[in-house]
Structure formats: structure tokens, C-alpha cells
Amino acid sequence: GENVEQHPSTLSVQEGDSAVIKCTYSDSASNYFPWYKQELGKGPQLIIDIRSNVGEKKDQRIAVTLNKTAKHFSLHITETQPEDSAVYFCAASKSNTGKLIFGQGTTLQVKP
Amino acid sequence: GAVVSQHPSWVICKSGTSVKIECRSLDFQATTMFWYRQFPKQSLMLMATSNEGSKATYEQGVEKDKFLINHASLTLSTLTVTSAHPEDSSFYICSASSGSYNEQFFGPGTRLTVL
């Protein structure tokens, strides 16, 4: 069945450094790839997304890249800040169902 | 825009009772709503998909008679956990979609504890 693998499961960086989280999806029909940030006890918050007709998208300190051939997509956070500390989830979906398949999550810790 | 609310934010109930959780899209019409369950330190698992005015579609392994979903309007979906047991204790999260480009907007979640 459809599957999304996310790595690493935990990531610790120093404030100001960059953080990269990677995901791989199995269904080649997937065409929408959002990234969510979840803080403890809260629902996921969409931080950036990318569609299959685009290879890269950037929003201030956050960027996402997509390699459709390899079925990989990655989240890049530059100049990390302590408030970036949270759990990050990648997901993939396709138009005919709209169902999101989530990765396992990455706990990001940014040390001051 | 794209705000989704859930009520209650947390609930504690006795084993055997039923609990209803509401999910509302506050500033858009949600043609589709999704219900997820999340156990501690785990990812979100889709339970069911509901479209306004029609029966929900449940994921494999999710008991439809235990988790009753009603999507009566374009702004409201409810999840009722019937005859709750301690193993149903979890964080339940809904999301709503207007159908545009697969985007889903998530609610803040409901923490259910069954004693």
C-alpha cells in the first residue's frame, strides 16, 4: 500500500544551523506534498507544501525540494531558532482521494 | 482564513460511555472532513473520510460501529466514540478540506482519556 518514510526520527541542531528532513513516498501517483509542524498537545500546522509540477519552493527560512523521479522530498530550515523546536511531519496525497499519508515524524530540537 | 475548531479540547469519561467530538470549519465550506487518531510519540493515522451528506469511508481496521461519524453540514462533522474503553484513549484530530488542491486544515485536537 501507500507508504511514506521519514528520516531522521530525531534531529538536534545548534541555533543558527540548518536542519534537513527527508521523506520518500511509494505511490508514483502522489502529487501533493505538505509539511506540518506539530507542537506538544496541538494539531498539526501546515508550514509549506509543494505540488508535483514544481521542483522547489521557498518561504523565508523554509524550503522544500521534490525529486519526482526518485520519489524523494525534503524540508530545509535555515537559521534555526529555538522556537523551531517541534515535531515535523511530511505527508503525500493524490488528487483522486485527497487522503494524506503521513511520515513517522521528526523531533527537531534547536539548542540555544 | 482556513480555521478549524474542535470541541471539546479534552474529555475524561468512564469506560462504557459514549463521547462526541465536534469539528467545525469556521471560515470556509468543507466538502470533505477527515478524522485522525494519534497515540503518544506516533504519527497521525487516518480513521475515516467523510463527505457532506454521505456516509463516511473508514480505513481498514477502524470499526465503523464504534466510531460513528456524521457530516451533516459543510461546516460540521462529529465523531462519536461509542462504548469507550481505556484503549480508545488517544488524541483525536480532525481536518477539513474545501476540495481545492488537496489542502487540509487541521483542528487543534481533542485529548480523550477513558478511565
Whole-number mean pLDDT of chain A:
94
- Helix and strand element order of chain B: EEEEEEEEEEE
Give unreliable regions of chain A as ranges. none
N- and C-termini, Cα separation of chain B: 37 Å
**Straight-line N-to-C gap of chain A:** 41 Å
Name the beta content range of chain B: over 45%
Structural class by SSE content of chain A: mainly beta
Mean pLDDT of chain B comes to: 92
Q: How is the secondary structure organized here?
A:
The complex is a heterodimer of chains A (112) and B (115).
Chain A: E1 4-7, E2 10-14, E3 19-25, E4 32-38, E5 45-51, E6 56-59, E7 62-67, E8 72-77, E9 86-92, E10 101-102, E11 106-111
Parallel strand pairs in A: 2-11
Antiparallel strand pairs in A: 1-3, 3-8, 4-5, 4-9, 6-7, 7-8, 9-10, 9-11
Chain B: E1 4-7, E2 10-13, E3 19-25, E4 32-38, E5 45-51, E6 57-58, E7 67-73, E8 76-81, E9 90-97, E10 105-106, E11 110-114
Parallel strand pairs in B: 2-11
Antiparallel strand pairs in B: 1-3, 3-8, 4-5, 4-9, 5-6, 7-8, 9-10, 9-11
What can you tell me about this protein's structure?
The complex is a heterodimer of chains A (112) and B (115). By secondary structure, chain A is mainly β. Chain A is globular and about 45 Å long. Chain A has strands at 4-7, 10-14, 19-25, 32-38, 45-51, 56-59, 62-67, 72-77, 86-92, 101-102, 106-111. In chain A, strands 2, 4, 5, 9, 10 and 11 form a six-stranded mixed sheet that branches. A five-stranded antiparallel sheet of chain A has the order 1-3-8-7-6, with no helix packed on it. Chain B has 115 residues and is mostly beta strands. In chain B, the strands form two sheets. In chain B, strands 2, 4, 5, 6, 9, 10 and 11 form a seven-stranded mixed sheet that branches. Chain B is globular and about 40 Å long. Chain B starts with a strand and ends with a strand. The model of chain B has no long low-confidence stretch (mean pLDDT 92). Classes of the chains: A mainly beta (112), B mainly beta (115). The interface between A and B is medium-sized, with 25 and 24 residues.
